[in-house]
Amino acid sequence: MFFLSLIEHTLCLPPHLLNLPLDEAIKGELETLFLDKVIPNLGLCISIYDIRDIKDGFIYPGDGASTYTVQFRLVMFRPFVGEIIVGKLKSSDANGLKLSISFFDDIHIPVHLLPNPSSLMPNPENKHQGVWSWEFQDEQYPIDGKDEIRFRVHSISYPPIPIEQEKEAKPFAPMVITGSLDYDGLGPISWWV
Amino acid sequence: MKIFHPKAYPLEGSLRTLQLQSSAHNSRVQANAGALTNFEVLDFLRSRGASTDPTRVIAPVAPSEFKVYDYLVQSAVCNQTRESINEFLKRCEKYDLANAEKLNIINIRPSSLVEIDPIIEECEKRMKSEDVEELVEMVVQVLPEHPASVGIERGTDVDKISPDQELMEAN
């Protein structure tokens, strides 16, 4: 689920941080910049693992801040295709399921990757939501969100940042994981224990 | 209306810091400098000071890192130790598993045949069913179990008392 990535970044250190020791100040700046942000193709940055190298320390003319070139390692959340992850059900509707692990919410299980055959029982109160259930050997096994769901990562995509969005659209998700439940051992844990 | 999701690519941040330079200088030296098991990330967060009790507000750990810590603490890796993982890696060499499969097993800790099936690709072709059963038993012995599933496994652990005692004496 997690990888280390070695990144080199040119960082401008604002003068009000000059009283702190250098590595603390740089770590603080890097955390504001990278923590909890998605870098395309690298994943979601969880944490700064360590700082390997701090170079340069230039002061550009006309600027009160010094600029450093820093090499550091980040702990990135980037599951590989085929990884099995355990998550909780967030919502389920006609397009499929949405799962979340507490720090990452955009996990989508589309209809064609649900266990086959599955059927949707629409919720009488809310037309867009419903409960999916799997038919196996003449018994119905609903996915109702009482326990955690095991899914396999099918693909990860990083949609580009949109220039415009309509008012009612969901907030833009920079990293989307598509998962699949279509295998023995996947799905709510209570089905297999 | 927010156009940029809070988790968007930090483009504006990089541009702000580099206003005096002509070329953007944010290079990835090595995109993959090593995979981490969930246990290693949990250990790293613990060493920074994350914990589940109320002193967490004072620790130098950001709220987003706490979310990761909370997720890992209630998953199957919360009781793991470095020794148990090393022991598992040593013992699973004879099964010729891919690195991704070993990582999956350590993170998920399957305790039955049906749970290990999606992890190992082409299970029937590569390993005979006795080998798979042996592997599952070895996982259950070597990797500590998830605290929530202790009640379920207690029922089947009656005949496995001696291997558990051996492990406890070794610790």
Write up what this structure looks like.
Chain A has a five-stranded mixed β-barrel with strand order 5-6-7-12-11. The two termini of chain A are 24 Å apart. Chain A has one helix spanning 22-34, and strands spanning 2-13, 38-39, 43-59, 66-77, 84-93, 96-101, 104-110, 118-122, 130-136, 139-142, 149-157, 176-180, 187-188. Chain A has 193 residues and is mainly beta. In chain A, 7% of the residues lie in helices and 51% in strands. Chain A is elongated, with a radius of gyration of 22 Å. Chain A has two domains: 2-77, RNA polymerase Rpb7-like, N-terminal domain (Dna Ligase, domain 1, 2-Layer Sandwich), CATH 3.30.1490; 83-191, OB fold (Dihydrolipoamide Acetyltransferase, E2P), CATH 2.40.50.140. Chain B has two domains: 20-78, no CATH class; 80-147, RNA Polymerase II, Rpb4 subunit (Growth Hormone, Chain: A), CATH 1.20.1250. Chain B has ten helices and two strands; from the N terminus they run H-E-E-H-H-H-H-H-H-H-H-H. By secondary structure, chain B is mainly alpha-helical. Strand 1 (2-13) of chain A pairs antiparallel with strand 1 (26-30) of chain B.
Write down the overall geometry of chain A. Answer: elongated
Helix content of chain A: under 10%
- Which value, in Å, is the CA radius of gyration of chain B? 21 Å
Strand content of chain B: under 5%
N-to-C terminal Cα separation of chain B, in Å? Answer: 57 Å
Unreliable residue runs of chain B: 8-24, 150-171
Q: In terms of structural class, how would the helical and strand content of chain B be classed?
A: mainly alpha
Question: In angstroms, what is the radius of gyration of chain A?
Answer: 22 Å
Count structural domains of chain A.
2
CATH architecture of the largest domain in chain A: Beta Barrel
